[in-house]
Amino acid sequence: MAGDVKTKLSKNLLRMKFMQRGLDSQTKKQLEEEEKKIISEEHWYLDLPDLKEKESFIIEERSFMPCEDLLYGRMSFKGFNPEIEKLMIQMNSKCKEKEMEVDEKMEADVSDEEMARRQYETLVGTIGKKFMRKRDQRVLQDEDEDEDGSSNIRPSKKAKKKFLKPQD
Amino acid sequence: AGGVYWVDSQQKRYVPVKGDHVIGIVTAKAGDVFKLDVGGSEQASLSYLAFEGATKRNRPNVQVGDLIYGQFLVANKDMEPEMVCIDSSGRSTGMGIIGQDGFLFKVSLGLIRKLLAPKCEIIQELSQLYPFELVLGMNGRIWVKAKTVQQTLIIVNILEACEYMTAEQRKQALAKLSGN
Lengths: 168, 180
What we know:
The complex is a heterodimer. By secondary structure, chain A is mostly helical. Chain A has 7 helices and 1 strand; from the N terminus they run ααααβααα.
């Protein structure tokens, strides 16, 4: 009697979480799809044919600037406002050549490369000194005192003391 | 292979366009934002932080009635236009409060475009007269400042009249002036 008729469980009950744990993934997917179908069928939609959007190669631009290649609006003449005159040269050459780099600072006495080289050299020197052995430091000191500084002429330094084998 | 096509027409009423540089008049200060009249259908807003080197502590000294040269950051028909006085890299490039004195007047938009053309004869001829400073806003407003009031007014009159003068008439007028 017991196993004859399997009690029919309602759909809602089957949808509950504790019932779904036992199900395998396929049945789960099937259930989900059925759910979605029911929901989407309830939605209203227009039964129109799909209109394809025409590909437009036209870009609409509302400003006049790119059309006529206009100059910058602030101007000064005959040195009335020197900053504006400098700006004029900058802005109008930027327009023409489309350069992004603008150098606003005054011309430096030392060029950028020279500056970088100097900095790098001194930096290498400073860090290098830190790790030099004492003997090399002494050598360096001698070199510094010798103001000529040309690396070819090495200052006369004491020959490194070698181990003198005691003569028998 | 595309080209640029545009319709050139005579217009006096300005419509704010993104990227355009215009001269605005400060009409109100509302907390952190200034309201500018740019000659459009709506007033433009300008934040006090949109100036070079402006911070919350260091506010720009803008009063009602000041003239500002700036560009539109936002300008479409659905929103209130917004202006800024710095460019995308944070530099002012000449924008900001336009200084004291000088004279502001209005011309048609077509004339502004003519004056801003790369080889504008009017500007070249005027620049030979005497030293002066000029700011042209795409909204039809021009600001001029020269050493004396008389010189300023002469330049203003020539610019206004340029609309309707032919090239010869203009040259004649300028010749008379430089003869003075």
